[in-house]
Write a structure and sequence with these properties.
Belongs to the drug/metabolite transporter (DMT) superfamily. Small multidrug resistance (SMR) (TC 2.A.7.1) family. Gdx/SugE subfamily. This is Guanidinium exporter. This protein is 80% helix and 0% strand. The protein is mostly helical. The protein has one domain. The two termini are 21 Å apart.
C-alpha cells in the first residue's frame, strides 16, 4: 500500500506544481488555494509512504514523478519547449526512478 500512497503523492505534486504556475506568484486566489491543498495532501501521502519505505527511495521517486509529470504538463498544456536534450533529461529521470524501484525490491 505504501507504493500506492507514494504514486498518488507524486501525482498530486504534479497538480500543485501546475497550480503554482497558474497562481502567478500567488497573486490569484483559487490557483493559490489549489496549490496549498494539493501540496498538503501530497506531503501527507509521502509521509505515510515513508512509514515503510526507505527515505531515499520514497523521496527520489516522489520528486521524480513530480518533476517528469510537471515537465510533461509544461509541454502538453503550456506548450513549453520539447527539445531533444530536455526529453533526454526527462528520460534519464524516469530511468533513475525505475532503477530505484528495482533496487528497493532486490534482496540485500
Amino acid at each position: 500500500m505504501a507504493w500506492m500512497y507514494l504514486i498518488v503523492a507524486g501525482l498530486l505534486e504534479i497538480v500543485w506544481a501546475f497550480s503554482m504556475k497558474q497562481s502567478a506568484g500567488f497573486t490569484r486566489l483559487w490557483p493559490s488555494v489549489t496549490t496549498f491543498v494539493f501540496m498538503a495532501a501530497s506531503f501527507g501521502l509521502l509521509s505515510i509512504s515513508m512509514r515503510s519505505l526507505p527515505l531515499g527511495t520514497a523521496y527520489m521517486i516522489w520528486t521524480g514523478i513530480g518533476a517528469v509529470g510537471a515537465f510533461a504538463v509544461g509541454i502538453l498544456v503550456l506548450k513549453e519547449d520539447a527539445s531533444a536534450l530536455r526529453l533526454l533529461a526527462a528520460a534519464m529521470i524516469v530511468g533513475g526512478i525505475v532503477l530505484m524501484k528495482l533496487a528497493s525490491a532486490a534482496p540485500r
